[in-house]
Design a protein that fits this description.
Structural class: mainly alpha
Helix content: 55-70%
Shape: globular
Number of helices: 16
Length: 305
């Protein structure tokens, strides 16, 4: 399937929704190294970004494929971050370094990070095979209505397998993320409500979601809005912020819809190819998690949602 073909909204081609979800779980940590590895922080610091915490570099590193855009467009594409937080970091980001410089820095940083994490396995035939399979799926991704996926698809592919694996993981996670935003919109969840409703089902703690920059007043307003919604006015969250059954049903629907919208790239590999990729990724997934770079709790709710 080319990236211009339509999507069916189901895991056609024999690729089960559970496999689509599994591959996201396996690839997400390989992408997320970008935001936590000291090798990437060193590259960002060399450009002039403050690296005392991760946000001053996170926004330009993730947004650079979009070009020198302002906070409004980054807020739209990232969705669940407070517009104030985005503006704080994005409106001055391109005065520090150009998107082209940031893109080059993130490739250098990931190269160093993967070599440190994987050691000799960075040049293994297993990684090269995984990279080739992931690239096939990424090149099959439909980018219509998916700004972050499309921006990353336009980037030149690196020549070495481990960087191809990272770029494929990035395209596929942004493809899924763009589709997740579509699912949230269909469910009628605005950016703050999307976080409140996700926290309500135990995907992560409220404290973890507070890192997205919403004020206590905005969080409370979103919770009150969700409490007033739902069948028979029973609401989507209860008095303590916990999800009602209607709230859980809504979030299950969002995640199911997200999986459906993320399925199309994997059809190019079919059941055998996706199964093989899942097997190959296992050791590299373990290596990233064992590195201790990534936080144990994230706003993605992997393993909990």
């Amino acid at each position: 399937m080319s990236k211009h073909d339509g999507e069916t909204g189901t895991a056609d081609g024999g690729v089960e929704p559970a496999r689509v979800r599994q591959l996201w779980h396996l690839l997400e940590p390989l992408h997320a190294v970008l935001y936590y590895a000291p090798e990437v922080f060193e590259e960002a610091a060399a450009l002039g970004y403050d690296t005392k915490d991760r946000w001053p570099s996170y926004f330009p590193l993730r947004a650079a494929p979009l070009g020198p855009v302002g906070g409004e467009r980054v807020t739209s594409a990232f969705y669940s971050f407070s517009p104030r937080m985005v503006a704080e970091h994005v409106d001055s980001a391109w005065a520090v370094a150009s998107p082209e410089e940031v893109l080059a820095a993130r490739v250098r940083g990931i190269d160093g990070a993967y070599r440190a994490i994987f050691g000799d396995r960075v040049d293994s035939p297993e990684l090269a095979e995984a990279a080739a399979l992931a690239r096939r799926a990424a090149e099959a991704a439909n980018t219509a209505g998916r700004p972050l996926a499309a921006a990353n698809v336009e980037l030149e592919w690196p020549t070495v397998p481990h960087l191809q694996l990272w770029q494929a993981a990035t395209i596929l996670r942004e493809h899924r993320g763009d589709g997740h935003i579509a699912a949230l919109l269909v469910a009628g969840l605005d950016p703050a409500e999307s976080l409140v409703s996700f926290s309500a089902i135990g995907a992560a703690s409220v404290e973890r979601f507070e890192s997205r920059g919403w004020s206590a007043e905005e969080w409370s307003a979103a919770r009150e809005s969700l409490a007033a919604r739902g069948l028979a006015a029973r609401g989507l969250v209860g008095e303590e912020g916990e999800a009602t059954e209607a709230g859980r049903d809504l979030r299950r629907g969002v995640e199911r819809h997200t999986d459906q919208l993320a399925a199309a790239p994997w059809q190019s590999l079919g059941p055998a190819g996706t199964g093989r990729l899942a097997d190959l990724l296992g050791e590299f997934w373990v290596a990233v998690l064992s590195s201790g770079l990534l936080p144990s709790e994230t706003t993605l709710g992997i393993g909990k949602a």
